[in-house]
Amino acid sequence: MPIVLTPYWSNGVQKLKMAPMPPPRPKHGLTPPTLDDEVHAARCMQQLRSKDKDIEKYIYLSMLKEQDHHMFYRLCLQHMSEFTPIIYTPTVGQACQEYSHNYRRPEGLFVSIKDKGKIKSVLRAWPKIDEARISVVTDGSRILGLGDLGINGMPISIGKLSLYVAGAGIRPESTIPICLDFGTNTQKYLDDPLYLGLRKKRVATTEMTEFMDEFMLEMSVAFPKLLVQFEDFSTDHAFLYLERYRNQYPVFNDDIQGTGAVVLSGFINAARLSSAASGRPLTSHRVLFFGAGSAGVGVAMQLMSFFTLEGLSEQEARERIWLVDSQGLVYTARGELAEHKRYFARRDYTGPPIKDLLDVLEYVKPTALMGLSTTSGAFTQAAIQTMAALNPLPIIFPLSNPVALSECTFADAVRHTDGKVLFASGSPFHALPWQGTTRYPGQGNNMYIFPGLGLGAILARCASVTDAMVEASSLGLANSLTPEEVEMGLLYPQIERIREISAQIAVAVIRAAQEAAVDRHTDLRAMSDKELLAFVNGKMWNPSVRPALSTLAERADGVLLSQY
Ligand SMILES: NC(=O)C1=CN([C@@H]2O[C@H](COP(=O)(O)OP(=O)(O)OC[C@H]3O[C@@H](n4cnc5c(N)ncnc54)[C@H](OP(=O)(O)O)[C@@H]3O)[C@@H](O)[C@H]2O)C=CC1
Ligand SMILES: CC(=O)C(=O)O
Ligand SMILES: [Mg+2]
Question: Where does the Malic enzyme N-terminal domain lie (predicted)?
């Protein structure tokens, strides 16, 4: 008889059928006599919560995942908003910075520039070749806003993949965290005797590209069903490798495309509210990007579709967007610009550089201010108040990670706009009591997008990831708010609903893939939307409620339970 359980994320709506677990293999004496699974779950949470420091919580959960990944994912799904700040941003940032010091066990694939010419044999070392479906690949060169961490970037790949498992039900054994080691330009790590990576400066782009060509080819041969997510490459290489491989392999860049999609989604919901309050049409929004790297420009590119879907031409849409970098307003007459900034460089301004954010705000008069600058506190009280003076409901999204680099806090944004702000940040902030009500911050983080986008791309066996698929993921997310969430003033759904949302996103992504004919699993084309949603849900891996007795007895038997 199958066991029917109510999954933790469904509020009792969805029923989950699970195959019966193999009978436990108790070996009398190897486990405590009253070990009970439910009590053990509570024990795990008690152990987690007893840790004072977030990094200790991270280490505890990392060990729990290794020892009993069913329990880890079960608790993760049950306590999503408590777990994500630990296994993901902000704590994963610290875990990266301290990776070489806290390292305990191998947990992914390391491929270094020294492996050039023999990458194939390194990939073949992976124990579960046939299972591989999704890999998050970083080179550690720009981890969150923390800079070049070299091989210490591995936990970002691990963290993102944990969210694939928790958020989209990807099988744990189908995930491959990869950190590429091209050296590091951070002297602190080169001088650190415990540093785990190559002790050399980063190689030049030509050599890196030769490596990447070999790497991508060998990945496609070794893992024919694999989708690759590029993560936290420095901006120049992020754009370079996305363009180089996107039509050749199933690959996307999370910082450019995933971030673009998640911010477009939150912006759509915010812009509707803002326009309703101001009486100004949606097409009149003016969006200022503070930060013009891979994330800033990626979001700007994605926001173009907001304006074009509203009926503007490409040229008109581009004119709704302004960029600011470390030199101030980005405009063509300023001089030589990096390639990724040229498209949005303003052609209608030719005066002296405008460097100060307050002066830029005065000049642009934006309705929305997006922070992707890695600059903590850049949205000062004066800047936030200026946004409030310009707009009845200003849109302010400080999106830099981790939380210490956020351009402003939620509390400051609420206080300095007298509670009127439409807010989303990259890392989580707590809800705030405000004048007898509660204000909820949005989390505009690509974690809402990549699990569903990846799941859809994997299930449709896509040959490539198209712009339309990314846009579909964004619109799917924007439309996923429940009436209760709208009532609460949320711009993004509650993270506890991530599985339901990922399934909806996956369906939208599969349909977009079918329209572009990049789907190789063409059987799905004949399904109705309802059938497709059921198919997607049916494919999701679920943690089992395993008798702890069995788990621990297996461990005592020396059976390897560790999964990624
Ligand atoms: N919320 C989310 O889901 C995501 C958030 N992010 C966050 O976005 C941030 C940026 O990432 P990425 O674009 O790749 O990084 P980059 O370092 O490539 O870009 C940073 C940008 O900010 C500009 N900048 C730096 N300092 C200042 C300053 N004082 N004033 C104005 N502009 C400044 C830089 O200018 P210049 O070009 O002149 O150097 C550059 O354009 C990171 O913190 C990252 O964590 C990224 C992906 C997803
Ligand atoms: C969230 C993310 O991908 C980043 O900050 O880089
Ligand atoms: Mg990233």
Answer: 65-246
